[in-house]
Every structure is written in structure tokens, then in C-alpha cells.
Amino acid sequence: MRHVLNTTVALGALILSPHVSTAQDARQDTIIVTAPGPERSADELIGNATGLDRDDILEVLAGSLGDTLADQPGTSTSFFGQGASRPVLRGLGAERVQVLTNGLGVIDASAASPDHQVAADGIDAEKIEILRGPAALAYGGQAIGGVVNVIDGLIVEAKPTETTSADLFVASNSVNEGTELAAKGQVSSGPFVLTLSGSRRDFGNFEIPGFVESAPLRALEEAEEEDHENNELEGEEHHEEEARGEAENSFLDTQTLSAGLSWIGEDAYWGIAIRQQTAEYGLPGHSEHEHEHEEEGEAEEDGEENPFIDLEQTRIDLRAGLSIDHGPLTKVSGALSIVDYDHTEFEAPGEAGTVYGADGIEGRLELDHAIGGFAGAVGLQYLDKDLTASGEEAFITPTDTQSLGLFLYEARDWESGLGIEGGLRFEAVELTNSEAGSTDFNLFSGSLGLHRHTAVGLFIGGQLSLAERAPNESELFAFGEHLATSQFEIGDPGLSKERGLNLEGTARWRGERGGLGINLFMSDFQNFIFLTPANSPPDGVDADLPVFLFTQEDARFIGGEAYADYLVTDGPLGADWMLEASLDVVDAELDDGDSVPFLPPMTLKGSATADWGPLDITVALIHAAAQNDPGAGQLETDGYTAIDLKAGLDLAEMGLAPAGTEAFLEVRNATDEDIRYATSVLKDVLPAPGRNLRLGLRLAF
To answer: In CATH, what number does 4-212+247-700 get?
Structure first.
């Protein structure tokens, strides 16, 4: 843990700064519906929680969910071009971060491979909530690292204040010559509410500021070339690897169509919604990996292959709730999702390769209650998911996953400001593979926390939790070439369940002009599952790609997030100024002393917004340190400093357009930095987009 001391000093410096106070000024008013039990704001949770409303989402919107959330405190992305990414929370991602839609799992193939798009998107979302730490445990072992809940608003639980409403958003991007479009309309009549929405993204290949390959990778290749005589063919291959200026085959074309019908009574509601998402996106870097390992004499001509994914998911949601005014039971709610998902990986147009399917059903029943001063919830959750893969590049055999979970959560607050909260969850999981047979796990999770509010605006709390996670399909049953990561992956059906003991503490203060906050955590994992290079190929394995094995070892994660904001009224240039800053860091080591791979580096974020009423201008800065402890088999990742600029204009306030009309102009990555995410498997062969001029308009009425 060589960076822990430096990290602690940096966190302390941010918190003690006299010019800033807590991040997210609206945090104290943001209700986090994803948290179990009674409704609470983000400032009332011990764990770090973030809620982004529609305005926040549109400000940070990117091509996929992980990239949209990448700049939130304690959050990074598994960036795989514009088409695929998942959120990484506190250094944990994929199989340890549960992505939900309206409180139930997305049921897709995104956790099986980083090039698979997550079937939840922010472009048509009403709200996105992020839970880090113990509060996420009510959603099962797969949420051991946290929960991201995308709330689409198709099923409403309360009667809208307006009979009709609409929201239209459109934007254009220079970096990929791309367009974004989203529209939503709502009509109510009597107790019924109809909601319709649609969205579309059309992005071309994106521009990059320099070389496709990273400086460490190019230096390694140059060193290897010095050990070999260069012939003409090798020179040509190297010239191709020195490509720059554009990320080839990085296009994205995706659309969604959704409808929801709700009935709202005095004490009850029910609703049904259907959402269809389709996407077609390129796999940058994928074809290069393939060419490197084709059999001699079988390689195809350069440029002939442009692999891409064609995806479709249809999701049906049913949800209902009943409020009860007497007795210990206060509310009964239930939700059910039925999902049909498939995607085809094409090696070139018309040449279908691997086909993935994920069909499933998930349901959740929750009973809210108030007993003896305690308020809480008891619930039941069930999942049945079939994951299939067929084709030459299928490295996972068909697997059915069934789980049944029972959870209990209780909380109580006293007039003195003291509060207590805790929860238990038991889950039985069975995975049945078509070749390896069945394996089952009994999982237990529990948490206990104490907090205290003070009259001077201070909130302090601490929480201890234990969580267990079952290995997923890839970790248990993978066997074959995984070209998205350029690895031959081998799972282990004998893997044990993963267990994490987590300790988290928080302190927050808010005054009239701002506040400050800090969350610190330490997680000890037993049987932590990770992918590591094999010293030599196992018997019977003849692979052209490097062989990687899923294995287990104890690990420890330590880190935290600090966040602050400060409001200056009637400040310089006659504007009201909002100053914001955050710092997040995580360090993790395996029991043998090696670093856990694909960890985000220490990252500092700050912004200053000047508000003149109808006009506001923001300057934001992100500094990511170099990742010099990349883990076995990985190269170091250079740090970067990126600057974003944005100007927003309220056309309605200026009398130029109807109420709710806003225009914006922003420059993302204004200095055209070479940005590479240490959390991405493509970090050495694919940088993030370069300078992007983004112009947009939103109309809401």
C-alpha cells in the first residue's frame, strides 16, 4: 500500500481547504430510492450515494453508461470505445457492480466481456442513482462493489401535476460527426398515465489526439524490434500499428423505443412498460488482435475485416404498490422484469460469428413496515437467467443461473440525532452449465451502522458489513479464445465463493454557503477472484493467444472519496460562483504483494461555474495520476489533465423561446489530451476521444 500515506495527506488537504465545502449542493435534497427501507436523502446514508437527475445526465451524457458516469466521485469506466462500457466503482467492476433498470437487473451479457454493451442507457433516463458500499447489499452478492440504478420513469407512482408534458433533447458532436436525439411525452387522463419515449445516437469513428497505441506499448515494441532483424514485411506491419488521428471501426448507432401505462389510485398504483433497444457498434482494436494470431497463410488482406456487434433487447416491466395507513405494514410493492436479449458479433458485413443470448426473468417483492420505532423492509428476490453463446469465438458454454434471495433492512433515528441501521440477506445461487454440470452457493450478507446528526450541520457515521458473492459464468466455465481481450481464458468450476469484509466511515458538514464531506473505506476479501497470466499453458491447451486463468487469492482494498462545494454570491465579474472539487483514490493488493489489475489512479476533479441568470459558464478540470502499479501482465498507464468548457443559455428567461428551452455549447477535452483509462483492457491500444465541440438544445414543457 505504498500510496496510502500520500493519499491520506491529499484527502486531508482537500477537506481542510478554507475555500471549498461538500460536493453536490443538492445532495441533501436528493432522495435515493434505490436504498432499501424508508425514503432518505443522499446526506442521510452512511455509504457514498449519488443521484443524477435529468439535467445532470444530459450534461455528462456519453455513448454508453460507464462513460456517462466516469466523472462521478469514486467512479470510473471500463471504456471499450463508444459502444461498450460499464461503471467501475472503487476499483470494482463487471461482476461486482450490479447495473439495474428500475431496481431490477439488466439481464444482458455485459458482465461476460468488456466489449458487450450494457442494456441500460442514460440518454432516455429520468434519473441515475449510484450506491457505493454497504447500502447496495440488499441487491445481492453481485452488488458487492455497488449498484447503479437507471430509472426510466415509464411507470409512474404518483399523479403528474400537469395533464401533458414533453421533453426534447438534441445535440451534435464534432469529434465523431455524431448526433444525439431523445424525446419523451406524457399524457394523463383520469387515473391513467401514458408515457412514450424514444432516442437515437449516430456516431462515426472518433478522432484521437495522437497515436492509437500508448507510449509504454510503443516503447515496448521498439525494444522488441531491436532484438530482431527488420525485413520489409515487419516494417509494413509496424507502420500500420503506428496509426494515429482516428480510432478505426469505433462507430456507434443505437436507438430505443419505450412505452409505459400506469394506473394511479389514492393509495395504490400499477403499471406496465415495454422497452426495445437496438445497437450496432464497431469493435476498435479487435481485428488487429485477430490478425496477430491467425495461422500462417490464412491471414486476410488488411482492411477486409471490420468486426462489429449487432444487439437487440426487449424488456417488459410490471410494477405495483399499495400504501397502508394502519398497522405495522406501511407499504407493499412488487416488480417483475421479463427480458429477451441477443447480440451477434460479425467479423465483417454478412459474416456472422459468435451469437450471444441472455433470456431471463427477475422479480422482487418488498414489504415496508414500522415497528417499535424502527422503519424498514423485508423482501424476496428471484432470478432465472439463461446465458448462451455459439460460434467459433464462443468461450463460454450455455449456463443457466437461478438465485433466490431473502433480505431484511431496519433503521431508526432518535431525537438526539443518533441513528442506527442494519440489514441481512441470504441468497441461494445455482449455476448449471451444459458441459460442467451444476454448482451451487449459499451466500450471506449483513451490515450494521451507526450515525449521528448534530445541530451544527455535521453528520458522522460508520458501518461494518460482510458480503459474499458467487463466481459468475465466465469465472467458472470460460474456456477458449477471448479476442476482445486478446487472451485465451480458462475458468475454474472449483472456485469458492468470494467474501468481503468492509469497514466504511463518513463525515459531512454543511453550512449556509456549502459544505464538505469524506468517505473512507477498507475492504478485506477472502478468495478474491481475478484473471492472471498462466506461467505455462495447462496440459492439452494449444493456444495462439496468451493464456490467462481465473484464480483466487485474498486481497485488500483501501481508499476513499472527498467532495466539496462553496457558493460565492455577487462575486467577481458580477456573477454567482459555485466552486466544486472532489478527490477519489483506491489502492488494492493481493495477498502475495502484487497489485490488483485495472485499478483507477488517484483522480482530482474541480470546477468553477459563473452564473449571470440566463447565462452560465463552467470550467472543469480532471487530473488523473499515472497508474504505476498496473498488476501482473499489464503495462503502466500515463496520467493526464483534461479541461472541459461549457456555456449554457436559458432562452426562455431571455424571452426568446418557450419555458424550459435551454441551449448549450461545450468543449470536452479542450486541450486534446491523450486520455487512457487504467480500468480499460484496451488502454494501450485505444485512447478516449480527443477534443469535442458539442452543441445542444433542450426543450421541456
So the answer is: 2.40.170.20
